[in-house]
Amino acid sequence: MFSYCVFNVLLLCAVSIFASKIVEGSQPILQKTIEALFTDRSNEMYPGPCKLIRASKRQNKICERDTGLANVLTNAKEQAIAACEETFQYDRWNCSLVFNRKAKRSIFNKLFRETAFVHALMAASITHSVAKACASGDLSSCSCPGNFGKNNTWKMAGCGDDFRHGKRLTKNFLDFKHAGNDQIAEILKQDIIVGVDSIGEQLKEVCKCHGFSGSCTTKTCWKRLGPFNSAMGLLKKHYHHAVKKKIMNYTTKRAITPKVRNRMKVERKNLLYLQKTPNLCVSTEGRVCKDRHNCATLCCGRGVITNKKTVSSRCRCRMVNCCFVQCDTCVEEVDQYTCK
Ligand SMILES: *[C@@H]1O[C@H](CO)[C@@H](O)[C@H](O)[C@H]1NC(C)=O
Ligand SMILES: *[C@@H]1O[C@H](CO)[C@@H](O)[C@H](O)[C@H]1NC(C)=O
Ligand SMILES: *[C@@H]1O[C@H](CO)[C@@H](O)[C@H](O)[C@H]1NC(C)=O
C-alpha cells in the first residue's frame, strides 16, 4: 500500500485509503442526515426550518416550503430509534451508536452491516411518516393522493397513505441526485432503497362497500400502510441477509464499472455493506437476555446470572356496567437472566 501511494497518483492513494477506512465524505448529505437523525437522541432544536438537524441549505429550503416536514422528521426519527431498540433488544448489537462501548468505534465510521441497516431503517421511517402525514393532511407538499384509483370517489371515503410521495420526498431530502455514482454511493443508495421499499411492501388496498345492506354495488378503495413496526420484521431480515461487497476498481475515480452495476442489479433486494462488524461479545456483559436459547447467543457462552424480578400486569379483566373494562393488577415473580 505504501509504495503504491508513493509511486502512483496521489488521488488514487487517497481514494483507496478512504475506501478502506471510512465512508464519510462520499455523500455528505445522505450520510450526514442519516447519522444526525440516528445519533442525536436528545430533542435539541436547530434554528433552521428543518429544526431537528443541522440541515443543508437545500434541505432547509425543502423544510421551508413544506410546512409540517420538520414535525414529520421528528416523528420519523423517534419512531425509527424506538423500533430499532425494541427489535434489537436481545441482539448483540442493540442499536447502540458505538461498538463495544468505545466512543471511538462509532457505527458510522465505516460501512458496517449495522450502518447499512440504520440507513435503511431511517429511510423507511421517513417514507412511512411522510406517507401517513399525507393522509392526515399534515404536509403541504401533498394532499390526499388520488392518483392510484380509477376515479375520484375515494375522496369521500378518506385518504390513502401516499407511499409514492414518501419515497420521492425521502430521496429528495437525502439528496439522492447529488449522492454520486461511485461504488460507495451505489451501495448507500441501495441501502436507502431497500428501506424505502420495505415500506412499499406493507401497502395494502382497503376497500369500502356502498350500496344496500353491504351489497357492494359501488366500492371505494384506497391504499393504507400498517404501523411502522410491521416493517421491522422485514428490515431485520434484510439486516441478517446483508451482503458484504468489495470495492473493486479505483482507477477511474471510483466510478462504477458497467460490470459492477450489473451485479448490483442482481442483488437489488439486499442490504450491502463493506466492513465486518467487530466481535461484540465483550460488550454483552450485564445485558438482559430473554430465554435459554437467546442467552446462549447473547452471552456468547459465558452463562447467565438469574434473578427474580417482579412484573405487574393487567389481569382478570371484565366488563362492568355493560361497557367499561375493569382489570386487576397482578404481580408476578419471574426469572430474569443477565449475561455474565
Ligand atoms: C367511479 O365513480 C362512479 C361515480 O362517480 C361510480 O359509479 C363507480 O362505481 C366508480 N368506479 C370505481 C371503480 O370506483
Ligand atoms: C479497472 O478499470 C480499468 C478501466 O476501466 C480496466 O482497464 C481494468 O481492467 C479494471 N481493473 C479491474 C481489476 O477490474
Ligand atoms: C445497549 O447495550 C449497551 C451495552 O453493550 C448498554 O450500555 C446500553 O444501555 C444498551 N442500550 C439499550 C437501548 O438497551
What does the model show?
This protein is of the alpha+beta class and 340 residues long. The chain has 2 domains: 21-278, no CATH class; 284-340, Endo-n-acetylneuraminidase fold (2-Layer Sandwich), CATH 3.30.2460. The protein is 41% helix and 16% strand. The protein contains 12 helices and 7 strands. The protein has helices at residues 2-7, 10-21, 28-39, 57-65, 69-87, 113-136, 154-157, 163-173, 183-200, 232-240, 258-266, 292-298, and strands at residues 204-210, 218-224, 243-244, 272-273, 288-289, 304-320, 324-339. The strands form 3 sheets. It has a 3-stranded antiparallel β-sheet with strand order 5-7-6. Strands 1-2 form a two-stranded antiparallel sheet. Helix 11 links the parallel strand 3 (243-244) and strand 4. The longest helix is centred in the middle third of the chain and has 24 residues, at 113-136. The model is unreliable at 1-27, 146-157 and 250-256 (pLDDT under 50). Bound molecules: 2-acetamido-2-deoxy-beta-D-glucopyranose (NAG) (3 copies). Residues 150-151, 153, 218-220 line the site of one 2-acetamido-2-deoxy-beta-D-glucopyranose.
Q: Which terms would index this structure?
A:
340 residues, alpha+beta, Endo-n-acetylneuraminidase fold, 2 domains, 3-stranded antiparallel beta sheet, two-stranded antiparallel sheet, 16% strand, disordered N terminus, binds 2-acetamido-2-deoxy-beta-D-glucopyranose
Quick overview:
The protein is α+β, with helices and mostly antiparallel strands. The protein has 12 helices and 7 strands.
Quick check: average pLDDT?
83
- What is the count of DSSP helices, taking H or I runs of 4+ residues? 12
Q: What share of residues are in beta strands?
A: 15-25%
Determine the structural class based on helices, strands and strand pairing. Answer: alpha+beta
Helix coverage percent? 40-55%
